[in-house]
Amino acid sequence: MLKIAWSKEYAHSLPEGHRFPMLKYELLPEQLLYEGTVTSENFFQPEPLTSAQIVRVHDQVYWRRLRALELTPSEIRKTGFPLSAELVDREVMIMGGTVQAAEFALEFGAAMNIAGGTHHAFTNRGEGFCLLNDIALGAQHLLDLQKVKQVLVVDLDVHQGNGTAQIFEHEPRVFTFSMHGGNNYPLHKETSDLDVPLPDGIDDAGYLKLLQQHLPRLMDQVQPDFVFFQSGVDVLATDKLGKLSLTHAGCRERDYVVLDMCRRNGVPVCASMGGGYSVRIADIVEAHANTFRLVQQLFF
Coiled-coil regions in this chain (predicted)? Predict the structure, then answer.
């Protein structure tokens, strides 16, 4: 059974003025239920991570200061959100969602988090709407428990997974692959194990050609026994923060390439939704919904 991490706190704990693009956390489950892609049994309420789990990845001093709401105004500005206890609690719950979804993926072949994909969180700081890094925490959790030996991070958000790259810079058991807009945020890029910077305006055909060029080779080279998929839909031409030109069909085909490759190779996959900032909320929800439809189609 497909297991999906979701909580009403994903949407309701956000500060005023930041809720429009994040309405997807409320609308996406409703859409999936309405169309019959999932039932209520597919959703699970995540448990917040403990401090001990969080500092497996994040610096203890940073976590203490974040939890105590002691970040400087400059640090807060870089996260993009006004800092509050509710926001930190929300982030910790999202982290738990991905860690627990990773466990379900080992059991069922695939699992998902309605939120997550917080790839701009570094060991010791947050950036770009990310306070903690759920992909890094999920990967470290599986490695620490010796449930996997080699992880591949497939990050296809329009923005580079800079935080994830920094966290695993010296960790050979995690291979970080980021295919992103070369001229987009962040201005300073970190070094992933493989970075594929994309030109502005790249279309479906050009994007998918590059993905097909790199991903099969990585599966053979890295030989992962687990994949974390950051499936941000800010690659769409309609996205306000992206500079690419993918259609809904192209974004769906991107997801199919990743998910089908995991299925055919027998590699469990945990997907986090990542970014999506189109002008119309319907474009965001539809693109994310395609990812869930494909997982149901391919794995269940």
Answer: none
